[in-house]
Amino acid sequence: MSSEWWELPVKGIDNEIVKMAELRQAQLTKPPGSLGRLEELAIKLAGMQGKVKPELDSIQIVVFAADHGVAELGVSAFPQEVTAEMVKNFSRGGAAISVLAESLGANFKVVNVGTVTELPNLAKVVDARVAAGTKNFIDMPAMTLEELEQAFRVGRAAIEELDRSIDLYIGGEMGIANTTSAAALASALIQVAGDRVVGSGTGVDRVGVANKAKVVNAALEFHLRDCGDEFKSPLEIARRVGGFEIVALAASYIYAAQSGIVVMVDGFISSVAALLAVRLNSEVREWMFFSHRSAEQGHSLVLEELQAEPLLDLGMRLGEGSGAAVAVPLLMQACKLHFNMATFAEAGVAS
What we know:
Layout: H1 15-27, H2 37-49, E1 59-66, H3 81-92, H4 96-104, E2 107-114, E3 125-127, H5 145-160, E4 168-174, H6 178-190, H7 206-227, H8 234-241, H9 244-258, E5 263-265, H10 268-280, E6 288-290, H11 299-305, H12 322-340, H13 344-347
Parallel strand pairs: 1-2, 1-4, 2-3, 4-5, 5-6
């Protein structure tokens, strides 16, 4: 690539604030550690935000949407046209993430990084199409180097345009066949067979899952033969089997961390984007919370690679950022407990 902005340092966690938050937790009217991970969440969030009493008043959700050429191999239960229709649904407020965003009072927008069909001007939708979907990566790169660079710029721009006062960023994704792309990315990044990563995605049956695994394995074999050791590079892996929305999402995570914005990661596809981001800049990991364990088979492998313990396990596999939005109230409650509970001194209770 022509630039290496993604390798620049991320904003540092305020360790002095962390110590002060730990001291506050030790003084609250409860046995030490009795609130479990809620205590850890509040302390970590304090260090990220640089204040002893962290807040979650301003939340931004950005969903990146794009299509995938590999869809022509029958890896999804839905036709490719659904991507564009779902973007319209997001705009109308009818999607799950739209409902969840409203319930959280979150700012919400969609970035069209590459639907097959052009879309009319839509409320809350930014047109940033790189191309009309990626190419079928079974026997060629999914995108050119120029397209990869452009998708990275789209992801960075989505964060650059945000108000820096936001307290939490959630990135989501939408794209028919993107679980196949994510599975191929994860398989190549972790270096495991596609069979261990591929799941049902949009709800394909056992035969459909077997077909997806066959497609992923065949693609990985082709690209390894085609470029050898170069296929071990995260950027080359992303160029060859990634999706525009996954690449943009990874770039948004990196720039959010560099900007000191807390990230809540969604499920399987978002976690693969997070893994790509961390492989490009390991410091980004410190700015991430992981919301839930997806029902997709490969998600646990990706979480293990990221050394991440998600907050929830609800059997979700919708994507869109929906699992991340569902987990936000846990962070809110952690903050409220940390902020509003009395200390032993304030309550006149012997500690």
